[in-house]
Amino acid sequence: MPNQTNEPNAHSKSQAKYDKEHTTGFHMKLNNESDADILEWLAQQDSKQGAIKKLIREDIARSSISS
Is the residue at 17 inside a domain? Predict the structure, then answer.
């Protein structure tokens, strides 16, 4: 029988602790009209997070080469 209370189970507690110690969340708000090109591109990606991280790392690599 599933947990009927609002109390988190052991797994969710340990996951929350890990997330707090090891991760950072980021929120981004895009305009449906002026950012339509970005939204369309994101919709085509299998992994939005992976695609964004790849672009950022490519930019970091380009920036460090030119510095």
Answer: no
